Amino acid sequence: MRDINVAVVGIGARGHGNLETILKLPAIKVKAVCDIYEDRCQDGIDIVTKSGQEAPFASCDYRDVISRDDVEAVLIFTNWEVHIEIAIASMKAGKAVGMEVGGACSIEECLKLVACYEETKMPFMMLENCCFGKDELLALNMVRDGLFGDIVHCHGAYAHDLREEICCGKENRHYRLEHYINRNCENYPTHELGPIAKILDINRGNRMVRLVSMASKSMGLKRYVDDRKDTIVNKDLIGKEFNQGDIVNTLITCANGETISIKLDTTLPRSYSRELAVRGTKGLYEQSTNTVFLDGDKELFETKEYYKDTIDNAAKYEDEYLPDYWKNITQEEIDMGHGGMDIFSFTAFFNALRENRPMPIDVYDAASWMCITALSEESIAKGNIPIEIPDFTNGAWKTRPRFDEYQNI
Amino acid sequence: MRDINVAVVGIGARGHGNLETILKLPAIKVKAVCDIYEDRCQDGIDIVTKSGQEAPFASCDYRDVISRDDVEAVLIFTNWEVHIEIAIASMKAGKAVGMEVGGACSIEECLKLVACYEETKMPFMMLENCCFGKDELLALNMVRDGLFGDIVHCHGAYAHDLREEICCGKENRHYRLEHYINRNCENYPTHELGPIAKILDINRGNRMVRLVSMASKSMGLKRYVDDRKDTIVNKDLIGKEFNQGDIVNTLITCANGETISIKLDTTLPRSYSRELAVRGTKGLYEQSTNTVFLDGDKELFETKEYYKDTIDNAAKYEDEYLPDYWKNITQEEIDMGHGGMDIFSFTAFFNALRENRPMPIDVYDAASWMCITALSEESIAKGNIPIEIPDFTNGAWKTRPRFDEYQNI
User: Fold this and answer.
1) Do B380 and B215 meet the contact criterion of CB atoms below 8 Å apart?
2) CA-CA distance, A28 to A51, in Å (whole number)?
3) How close, in Å, is residue B342 to chain A by CA atoms?
4) Less crowded by CB within 10 Å, the N or C end of chain B?
5) Cα–Cα distance measured from residue A210 to residue A199, given in angstroms and rounded to the nearest whole number
6) Which of B351, B319, B310 is nearest to A310 (CA)?
7) Helix crossing, A341-354 with A13-23: angle to 10°?
8) Is A364 left (phi over 0), alpha (psi -120 to 50) or beta?
């Protein structure tokens, strides 16, 4: 197995964890680290040396690290707004790119990302770890086996109470805070949309053609701050109005007639969920109740208070439908982040790069998933009007073949 | 307790059951029955006489029964399309009206319903039994107590696999079949929207201002028929295209900034659910997982696979928040239909009529809930454009007081 030399750009909370994770992978050498803050650069150096590797080059300017001859791949873990800018600069510098998830600020940057890839053909992957999620792959493989018949609708959510993280944004130099103050959109669509797009063959025989978005009022953060006036560190937030609606629902229609509903749900009290639901003519998968319901099971579930029954039977399908790496997951892998998804996502990237295989999640995926943020913002700002979704494949979606091998890391 | 003499119009499956139910109520006399089919009229006569009451007058023309001097109230259990027509004729004939649920075919008929009520002031109630549902009232009373803080979003669904019923529409003379062949809309919004509208004070301090709807492709009924070519009775359905999308999602925004999402989900395999979810700044109620989650419970629920935990703790709130009639429900009441909701709904209607109290679900409720069907049809037909929702109160929503007494039957 040959070494891959990488540069890591962005060493905030997520970058810190990701850097630790990739250093546990075989034959990955971190040659350079970068963050706009010097203390984070030092943190990056410390993590690398603690792992036993040589001290990496460090800079606060990403242009210094992406141009180095000893770097083959750039991993981008920065704030959302500069993901695409750094990805483009890296590809132009002849580097492979692994880019963390986030929404796009404009359609233009998505178009530029695609154009840059088509010009440079440098390997590019969006590191959407939820595409390697256990439930998501279980659902995908059940779909592919025809268990649910023709798929007509999928639902997902990013449902995660982030109030504390958002309100500590200034102290933690975290970018989410400014997004919640200034924007109002589906700001984080890819965790749920990515796996759904794979299920629905988006950009490979299908595409998303139109969306509408609607945002609720913004009350969650305001009330959260009101209730913590004495203890909150950032006093600027007291009395602050936030633009971001608490719940943003987005409906998407696909070229082949399927619909997708996704929900941003990050500023009200709740437990975490991605709410994946797959609906077909022969059955369904529902993550929030851990249910597989197949046509003909009707009698089993129609009890007197049947609408309360959580079936909780999905586990019995794991033997048949889970990839081996999920069946054989180790405690170490689980501990590497998000229950195992992180390590599988990185492994998929590095293996594809090393073996010169197509990337699991490519620029067309990235552009079409990320653009939902910018388009939802427009739909909401203009009173929930429908917005056309660009075809980033320039018509190639009609003939691009399905690519399920992505799940074989 | 004085007698109330009623006429029953519409004695199909639902009318048959409802007729049996109301005959078990004290002091309700069925003086007239009506259906466009003679055999159903005879069925109505038989049900009434079997209960021990005198044989009612019967006619296939509703105008004959609503004009009778011995009738005080008309109960309308017909197909959806003529609900409002018969309600208007009955009010004009000086009768109180109890009308079964369904969607409207046009905004015009909703406006006419309101105008007729304002002219005649005859008591009118839409018999939305789910407003008397156990879960729905539990949620309402928790909301009113402030348990969830400020409410910002509600979700609901009519999720009920009706494929068999729809495909037997010709044999059973059931109207749903023609709707599914010809229309494409949120055809049955009130079961979930009614309770949500009560929670959000719609027409009483708040109103629904705008919606967008999106329909998936229509595959469920087609595949259902394909798989049953040999056994299906109505051979006309073989190869038939249905207009109605399998899943219709509708997003609604309210004057006070709350959003509502509702889902029609009736032609794919699944178990029944209304999916009521209420989201506030301090907590949530979620029917599908039977969960009450309050701010501060976070640690309790964040286990390693926390997104799979069904909390299933709502029952512990019943002592404090359920109306007495739900706490003391008898097996007989449960057996009277839909687990008890039906009898509570009828009791509420008859008690309000007898005691000359305001009706629990009035024409403004009915018009604003039913109109969603016609408006969703327009949104879908025009490519998911936003549609303004009429204010049927003509501005009175701003000052009409909350009316929670409706739940005290």
Assistant:
1) yes
2) 11
3) 15
4) N
5) 18
6) B310
7) 60
8) alpha
Summarised one tens digit per residue, pLDDT across range A382-391 is: 999 999 999 9
Q: CA–CA separation, A195 vs A276, rounded Å?
A: 9
Q: What is the DSSP letter of B38?
A: H
State if pTM tops 0.95.
Answer: yes
> A29 by DSSP, 3-state: which?
strand
Query: Is A388 an interface residue toward B (CB < 8 Å)?
Result: no
Q: Residue B269 and residue A294: Cβ atoms within 8 Å?
A: yes
Among A380, A45, A366, A16, residue whose Cα is nearest residue A174: A16
State the nearest Cα–Cα gap between B375 and chain A, in angstroms: 15
CA atoms of B73 and B5, how far apart (whole Å): 7
Residue B176, helix vs strand vs coil: helix
**Closest by alpha carbon to A369, among A140, A80, A175?**
A80
Distance of CA B330 to the CA centre of its chain: 23
Is the pLDDT at A303 greater than 50? The verdict is no
CB contact set of A143 (below 8 Å; sequence gap of 6+): A151, A199, A278, A280, A285
Q: What's the CA gap between A29 and A15, in Å, rounded?
A: 16
**Would the CB atoms of A288 and B293 count as touching at under 8 Å?**
no
User: Helix, strand, coil shares of chain B as percentages rounded to 5?
Assistant: 40, 20, 40
What distance in Å separates residue B225's CA from the closest CA in chain A?
11
Contact between B207 and B254 (Cβ < 8 Å):
yes
For B74-99, write each residue's pLDDT tens digit.
999 999 999 999 999 999 999 999 99
Task: At A98, list the tokens.
Answer: 């692994």
CB distance A341 to A399 below 8 Å: no
What does DSSP assign to residue B249? E
When CB atoms are compared, the residue of B214, B280, B308 closest to A212 is B214
B4 token code pair: 């109330």
- For residue A157, list chain B residues with Cβ-Cβ distance below 8 A: none
Cβ proximity of A380 and A213 under 8 Å: yes
Residue A29 is encoded by which pair of tokens?
């050498």
CB of B402 within 8 Å of a chain A CB? The answer is no
Q: Which ranges in A145-189 belong to alpha helices (H)?
A: 163-167, 176-182
Mean pLDDT of the B239-264 span = 98
Interface check B272 vs A, CB under 8 A: yes
pLDDT of A307 strictly over 60: no
Phi, psi of B266, rounded to the nearest 5 degrees: -130, 0
User: Chain B residue closest to A251 (CA)?
Assistant: B214
Q: Least CB-CB distance to B257: which of A216, A220, A256?
A: A216
Shortest CA distance from A277: residue in chain B: B270
- Min distance A229 CA to chain B CA atoms (Å): 16
DSSP tag of A358: P
| Stretch 215-234 of chain B: residues touching chain A, C-beta under 8 Å | 215-217, 219-220, 223-224
Helix H or strand E encompassing A159: strand A151-159
**Which of A388-397, B246-255, B284-293, B367-376 has the weakest average pLDDT?**
B284-293
User: Would the pLDDT of B380 be above 70?
Assistant: yes
- Taking CA–CA distances from B292, the nearest residue in chain A reads A270
The verdict on B258 touching A (C-beta cutoff 8 Å) is yes
At residue B299 the predicted structure's pLDDT band, cuts being 50, 70 and 90, is: low
Task: List, as ranges, residues 53-92 from A with C-beta within 8 Å of B.
Answer: none
Gap between the Cα atoms of A258 and A23, Å rounded: 41
Going by C-alpha positions, the residue among B108, B94, B172, B101 that lies closest to residue B130 is: B101
A301/B contact by beta carbon, under 8 A: yes
